[in-house]
Amino acid sequence: MLPGHGCLRERVAPMKESRESRVDGNVPGRGSTFGQWVPRALRRLLTACMFAFIFLGIRGVAPFSRWSLNSLFLALVLLVILFLRFEEREYGAREVAAVGALAAVGAAGRVFFAALPGVQPATFLAVLTGYAMGAETGFLAGALIALLSNIFLGHGPWTPWQMLAWGLAGASGGLLGAFRRPKSLLAAAAILVTSWGFIFGWLMNLWFWLSFVYPLNWTSYIATCSTSFWFDLFHAAGNLVFVLALWRPMAEMLRRYRERFRFRYLGEGREWASSGGDRQAREVV
Amino acid sequence: MKLIPVYRPRETFIHGLHPLAALALYASLVAVVLVLQNPLYLAVCGLGVLSLVLLAEAGEECRPFLLLGMFMAFLVALLNPLVNRQGGHVLVYGPRLPVLGRLDVTLEAVAYGAVSGFRILLVVVLFGLASVTVSPDDLLDILSRISLRSSLSAALAVRLYPSLVVEAREMTEVQLARGERLRGGRRWQRARAHFPLWMALFRGSLDRAANIAEAMSARGFGSGRVTRRRLPLKGRDLVVLPLSLAVAAAAVFSSTGGGGYRYFPLLDNPLAGFRTWATVSLAGFFALLQVIGRCWKKWPWWRSRI
After folding, report:
1. Whole-number CA gyration radius for chain B
2. Which residues on chain A are in Cβ contact (under 8 Å) with B124?
3. A92-261 has which fold?
4. What are the pLDDT digits (tens) for A139-164?
5. Long-range contacts of A251-254, Cβ-Cβ distance < 8 Å, separation of 24 or more
6. What interface predicted TM-score (ipTM) does this complex get?
7. Residue of B82, B160, B221 with shortest CB distance to A104
8. Contact at CB, A156 and B213, closer than 8 angstroms
9. For chain B, what are the domain ranges?
């Protein structure tokens, strides 16, 4: 046992005891920006408003039928809702710091590859984060990669849509948790990340199509998507290369990062047990 | 790699606005540009946006956004006549294509494409102006009121990004000194040589994240907000904020029923739907900003008062 460990355990144990369900080593926050219930209430209110807005827009009720404005507004509202959801979950320092670091890497990668149209590791990193750290963390990392990289590349009407698209890419990474065998996981990751090369382009075309193209039908949407086909193809090809070259080592690094902080409290009078080894657990305690 | 944000601090009225007022101004103008259909109103908006760029002394910084907006405007102007079959005046009878159908180009579709192109140009320039005049720190401050944790992550990312870039440069120099082919050679070989570099950077950033997480825990992260940076609203913000919202609301509600202008099936006369009071209000809004901004720049006493 490390010196002073028992003393620290006594101080920390009562707080952990009431929250035994948490096994990831994060101490949940006891306060938030608006208190405990305001983010939840605000999120529900915004969700209701968003659906009402969509309903009125589809019914053609003025002024909600202006899809040029609606699309931008709805993208922003959806982002706020998902950010509020992240706030409600009360993530600990580990996730907050990891998301910041991953967003910085993704933004640096995007800025580094800015000269190559379509090719950048942001989509790959977002999906990887979603796989390794959960769908919600993946969403946040993807959204922040877009926000941060555009601080250096310049914001535009595309920023909320990029945040949404990369956020969804990150969230979809959570689906890969169902694959256990390494080979099938790599194949599934390659398919998912490569597909996101095109899906990202189609989502980005959506605001362009809704705002500046008339009439809104399948023909005009396909024509809009055809203008970005080569960019999407390069994006997808780049994603595939990133997955094949970097997925395994980077996923392993993220797994170790998670394991480094994992521990489980078994109750009073017993030792802390961690999934990664007692030594690491004691370091955290 | 780019290390400096697009934002440039300057001593101008636009830069001096509270981030909330600045965001309200830009969001309102984007809403106005997106909902108004009459080309004459859009021309007034165009002149207004130009006056704002000049007021912010951000012509040089906005040039890349202008070029990008022009490219997108060209794309919109090209795409609309190809997909739109509506309109009474056919200019060109084109061939029949598999997905697009018959490529008849009408005068109305060309006009709609041109106006939509101008609209996207204005929107891109407005977002560009927001990028160069609103500080990213202030932007994150606004985000922190909605979501503290995500804004903290973003702030950490902003702080980590420059050190990551510097580290990447140093590692590149070391790799080059060791004879790695990071420059020259085929693209694939260069990319392959870069992969170990990326791995090392990724590993280093995770280590840094672990250290930060421990430091945050040690400093009591999760026990509630202990500090908050307060940016007070000043007189200029109290003028710009409500006026911007009023202009946007007026534009949205006056645009019901086509914004007084229809492109299809035949082009309306722009002067027919032109309302003098609306034009005067819109131009007056931009003129008021100019007057306040110029006085703000010229007279320190006025600056201290608002």
Report:
1. 25
2. 156-157
3. Arp2/3 complex 21 kDa subunit ARPC3 (1.10.1760)
4. 999 999 998 888 888 888 899 999 99
5. A251/A128, A251/A131, A251/A132, A253/B202, A253/B203, A253/B206, A254/A128, A254/A129, A254/A132, A254/A133, A254/B206
6. 0.86
7. B160
8. no
9. 19-138+235-305, 148-218
